[in-house]
Design a protein that fits this description.
With 707 residues, the chain is α+β, with helices and mostly antiparallel strands. The chain contains 18 helices and 30 strands. Helix 6 (167-183) packs across helix 14 (485-494) and helix 6 crosses helix 15. The radius of gyration is 30 Å and the shape is globular.
Length: 707
Amino acid sequence: MSDLIIVESPAKAKTIGKYLGKDFKVMASVGHIRDLPKSKLGVDIENNFQPIYENKKDKATLINDLKKQAGKSGQVFLATDPDREGEAISWHLAYILGLDTGKPIRVTFNEITKTGVKDGMARPRSLDMGLVNAQQARRILDRIVGYMLSPFLWKKVRRGLSAGRVQSVAVRLIVDREKEIEAFESREYWSVDASLLTSGSKKPFPAKLSEIDGVKAELNNKEETDKVLKRLEDAEFVVSEVKKSTRKKLPAPPFTTSTLQQEASRKLFFNSRRTMKAAQELYEGVELPEHGAIGLITYMRTDSLRISNEARQAAKELIEQKFGAEYVYGGERLFKSKANSQDAHEAIRPSVPQITPEQIKSHVSGDQYKLYKLIWERFMASQMENAQLNTVSADITAGGCLFKANGYTVKFDGFMKLYVEESENPDIPENSGKGAALPALTKGETLKLEDLSGNQHFTQPPARYTEASLIKALEENGIGRPSTYAPTISTILDRQYVERMQKQLKPTILGMVITDLLQAHFDNIVDTKFTAQMETDLDKIEEGSEEWTRILRGFYGEFEKTLKKAETEMEGKRVKIPDEPTDIPCELCGKMMSIKIGPYGKFLGCTGFPECKNTKRIVNQAGGECPLCGSRMISKKSKKGKPYFGCENFKECNFMTWDAPVSETCPECGKKLFKKGGKKGTLYCAVENCGFEKEAESSENSDNAES
């Protein structure tokens, strides 16, 4: 009689099944099999917040199959994902199958490899009710907020709106940033920049004005700058100080869920949902000729920076083999996790470091390869020797003014030979090993002035959030956990509270209206500190130091009072969502169209409504022109959300492509070019029989690569 093991996904079941052999039957629950009902609150608040779970209707056949198999199996083991959500799924499975949760029926796998599965099966345990109750508390909190606050928004704004405990805070961060940008007043300032030559040199180096008569240089207008330039007309530029040092540069730690999503956004132009999809596939297992089915990375939902001794040793051996002994870090490099991080899992790393990206390239999808390469290089670099930079800083005096020049060269590239974090230092060319060096300078040396200029600048407003910077802000504020970042961003985009502008996240008028309304009446719901405290409380439930129903009682008591007060204050009132004006005339009545937001997104509506009821869909122009008929190209999205580009005259022309049109024209036929192949990519002409193609310039915009 074989034993039954239940996991979450069919891919994971297939991989584990190959490791365990004929003595085990491995089945997949395909996520949750029980949940709160969709049509009602599903929480008995009067009965100490008892959840009213229902079997999912679409899982009826699967549940019967699981019951039948469990009945004819020896033992049943629950091997769902090793986190709160996975523990809760196991708990629901135990309920449906009539299993004793106090017995050792739960197994977890940090990595889906032969060793990882063997270790997990060797250590079965009982269900962790701290994890289960933390998930239940989160689910019920989110259900209370969603099901009781959303109807308030329907009555006061419009039907179909929603609020969420985490999503509303994320929208507020984006709205607050937009208000900062709108309120920002740009200030003019000037710099004075010199281009200098040493004796006998033909290559100038830059120096920037730092002080005037011993006081920090602050030039606010052209007049002040011109005075400095006049003062320096005949001045002699002399090196007054040269400082040389060696600076140590440390590698970035291995990935957590948050840093993986941030770096994949910056380097690969992946959105968070795309990143987590590829990561899930890598964790669950792929088929490789030499290894069979194998999970290529450790569990991808983690905020720990811990690395096992075995993985560290394997990395060092491979580094020595590939790069030489001098590239192996001599000591034991430990990275400190954040104070509120969960240490149940390791950092995200290759489960078998010896499997290089090149070995899997032809056996996995493009996204899987790119993400594995990123994870593998980051992990390997974290175990490599520090880089050594020779730095030089020079003080140069002229006419009572002090100029400063800085430069460096790479003495030893260390980990930089393999990987440099994208945002770490934009001045250091990635993987190049070359620096911006200053010429040899000697104290007292007189320099030749090649050019001196005053340059106008303006202070810039804070940048809008990108997915990467929003995830970082959510993590820094303690909002959400590794599993929530991607779905939160997807939700606020799907609800049309936020929209993408290139890579930036911009609040819609709807998002701003909802946020203002929630701030006015439900300040706690959109308060970062309150939401972070709730996350801390959930962590305490998981640890067993806090009782989950007590947390729910404390939240609900205040929430119910606030909701009643808001309904009283808003009695008889409705909030109108302002329309966005446009300069597009209505072809029926001549009045201007405005952008409106409906249940299915933005559309153009006539301002003459209700007399004129003309509406039009909004077309996103992509630039460039159709290579077949010369009409404008417009950007669209597939059913799965992937951007593509098509001819505006699509019904007659039918031209479409996944490749983005660019502004550059073909030198052969004069038509606009298209770009394929991601960050660097290739420019090509799509006109039939033209065939022109060239490598894209690094300055070409590659934002369209994100889906």
